[in-house]
Amino acid sequence: MYIIFLLASDSDLALWYADHFGRRLTEFNGKVVWITGASSGIGEFLAVELAKHGAKLALTARSVLNLERVKGRCIESGLRADEVLILPADVTVVAKHDELLARVITHFGKLDILVNNAGRSQRAVWENIQMDVDAELFGLNVFSIVSLSRLAVKYFLKVGKGHLVVTSSLAGVIGAPFSGTYTASKHALHTKNT
């Protein structure tokens, strides 16, 4: 029955349920959302969609030029310039995380949602991967997320509310060929409550 459902719905059961019975994007109106990896791909798309529904945005990535472009798209989607804060940064530099969070809170007065979206992939034969590649990938895909999430959770506990979002991958559930380090980094993000 589940396989038939998957084929008919083009999604898994949880996604289908959320689409039909979950919260609407209008609930993001006025929320402050900080998105890392916001200069392209999923982060850019999410920023533009949230902008259409009135979310105030803090956008982080390394490329100032691409962040400016995304900010322009968010303004075209209905936000004012002061409702989009650009925070250019390399999220692997964890020593800067406190400062980045402080800038979001100073600018908007609060943070409601942290979207840990920054990350990258890797493809190679596992035994040929250099250790510095492993370390860089884990620094971005795992340790930057752990660091930012800890800071955000401390803030959320202080104010009494908030949400964390982590963009992962199916590779975190089922290994992907020729992506050993990437798969391991995504597996590190998946936990099961027992």
Q: Which stretches of 5+ consecutive residues score pLDDT under 50?
A: none
Rg from Cα = 18 Å
**Terminal Cα separation, in Å?**
27 Å
Using the alpha-carbon principal axes, give the shape.
Answer: globular
User: What would CATH call the homologous superfamily?
Assistant: NAD(P)-binding Rossmann-like Domain
The helix/strand series, from N terminus to C terminus, equals: HHEHEHEHEHEH
- Give the helix level as a range of percent: 40-55%
How many discrete domains? 1
Strand content: 5-15%
Q: How would you characterize the largest beta sheet?
A: 5 strands, parallel
Helical segment count: 7
In the CATH hierarchy, the architecture is 3-Layer(aba) Sandwich
Strand segment tally = 5
Question: For the record, what CATH class applies?
Answer: Alpha Beta
The assigned structural class equals alpha/beta
CATH topology: Rossmann fold
